[in-house]
Amino acid sequence: MLEVSDLCVSYGQSEAIHSVSLSAAGNETVAVMGRNGMGKTTLFKALMGVLPARSGTVSVAGTNLTKRESYQRVASGLAYVPQGRMIFSTLSVEENIRTGLQRSGSRQIPDDIYALFPVLFEMRRRKGGNLSGGQQQQLAIARALATDPKVLLLDEPTEGIQPSIIKDIAKALNEIRKLRKLAIVVSEQVLSFALDVADRLIVLEGGRVVHETTRQEVDAERIKRFLSV
Fold first, then answer.
1. Cβ-based neighbours of 140, under 8 Å, separated by 6 or more
2. 3-state SS class at 189
3. Do residues 186 and 172 lie in contact, with contact meaning Cβ atoms separated by under 8 Å?
4. Cβ–Cβ under 8 Å, residues 32 and 183
């Protein structure tokens, strides 16, 4: 569903992502792990077209999106939940979700969104800015799902969220991929969360892939060393 090949991204003359390749199939979750500053957010911004790729390709469901603008990538099935969530604080929960419906062409919020996140149904008239951090994260994921994506990118979804809500988000992501059969790629520093949701784990260091493993074969201590400061 997602195919990234030899992607290189630069800030001016400084290369930040070095020939990164990764893939994610439908009904599969891939975790991209690494410490702060190792290139995770830069990679995700490049996948969404927020940052231009110097070389390499990004494809979704066989369509090459490398030269396309961000809105065209969304129209092709790529959805992005950015670090910090970026919900519309002055809009209600329901209005936030409806902003994602433009791409799907529907006026109706899909039933499975409120089934996945019951708290959002209870708070659908509440302003987004009045939600807790964990509720805002669920709202950001719901808004992305409203675009009917083929690939869902989540950048640091557990950042600043209490452990009980992290478990809820993990459960929801596992349900989402089963229901929607989409590919999920999540950037993360919390290994326990990654192991709860991911089929495969990739570690970035200095903008390069330095380790890749399946969940079944994961060497937790080795990955923890990559994540330690």
1. 81, 82, 85, 86, 87
2. coil
3. no
4. no
Percent of the chain scoring above 70 in pLDDT:
98
Cross-sheet strand order for the sheet of 14-24: 14-24, 2-11, 55-60, 63-64
118-147 burial, b if ≥16 CB within 10 A, otherwise e? ebbeebbeebbeebeebbbbbbbbbbbbbb
Nearest CA among 4, 26, 3 for reference residue 176 = 26
pTM: 0.93
CA distance 85 to 169: 14
Q: Tokens in use for 113?
A: 């969104």
For residue 47, give the nearest of 29, 66, 32, 61 by alpha carbon.
66
Distances (CA, A) of 6 to 56, 65, 148, 207: 5, 14, 27, 12
Give me the chain's average pLDDT, please.
Answer: 93
Query: Given a cut of 90, is residue 34 above it in pLDDT?
Result: yes
Tokens standing for residue 38: 């190792």
Domains and CATH numbers, the chain: 2-227 (3.40.50.300)
Strands (E) located in 72-206? 78-81, 151-155, 183-188, 200-205
pLDDT digits (tens, 9 = 90+) for 88-124: 999 999 999 999 887 766 778 988 999 999 999 999 9
